[in-house]
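Re: that chain you flagged

S.,

Sorry for the slow reply, it's been a week of failed gels. I finally had a moment to sit down with the sequence you sent. For the record, here it is as I used it:
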Amino acid sequence: MSVRAGDAEPVPVEDLPAPGGPSRARRRRRVGVIALIVVVLAVELVVGAPAVGSALHHLRAPVWSWIGLAVLAEAASMGVFARMQRRLLAAAGTWVPLHRALALAYASHSLSVTLPGGPAFSTAFNLAQMRRFGASPAAAAWTVALSGMLSSAALVLIGALGEAIGHGHHGLPAVAIDIALAGAVAVTVRALVRNPHLLAGAVTRALRMVNRVLGRPVDRCRAQAVEIVDQLSTLRLPGRDLLIVAGFAVGNWLLDAACFGLSALAVGADIRSLATVLVAYTAGMAAASIPLVPGGLGVVDAALVLGLIACGTPADAAIATTIVFRLISFGLVIGTGWVSWLLITRTPAT
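Prediction finished late last night. Pasting the structure tokens below so you have them in one place:
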């Protein structure tokens, strides 16, 4: 039988999916996953009940002065991150008031850690708001990308610093390697900013390769990509400014780690050294980069607790420390972030 263009070839009835089949299978899988989670949590609750009960005892009488300092450290951490992005935008010729940069930092962080697929929403929101500030598409993308690169490198550096403190001179090679890698990233970024034509050539070749793979015209979107890359020539980031921005990236993590350490002091945890705080904190933040669930709930908490226990902290004190830290760094910051998001989205563009 011939089939004319536009006609659909008949499909045998036996090949058609049963009504509700796929959705019913999805429901069964969802129920199975939920049941597995419930069983795991129940087992953990039974096995860890003594430690949880002791942790609650730690939380009955926290030292409020330490908690107050922890809150201030977390607020300072968010402030330093906002200053880092503000400085990068200034290098692109876009001046942003500090209060607006701070509101954006809180709001984008909340989007990132509370929504499924949050990093994508956060990046889109960041780019849109920076465009509202007056930044070009290239400058906004450059700011988001470079701040992410510097933050990742800074976290690795802090983890290596914790290892160096904990293991003495045996950990120094790791620190030296991380510093060298961070320096290489900085030199590469400066070279591309000063010579955007180098990046334009690489982007053009990559775009042609992608277009060939997808079966598109090889020069599709080439003009737009080259135009955006050419806008990088307007960026000015002298070595001094780059060092300041890198310092902001390190300061952001160190102040957040300080909040973690102060949370331990607030519940009377026996933290043996600064290395314990840095190593456990780095483990928790590394786990946060795996977007299994919004906010890393359960994943980050387990990594923080296990990191403290591995460094010799009792399980009950480790649990209490993590609860206080997450209430501040997650609950308080997220609440502030959503308020900031509401204010930003209800404020007309100027």
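What I noticed first: Residues 1-9, 11-18, 47-53 have pLDDT under 50 and may be disordered.

Talk soon,
D.
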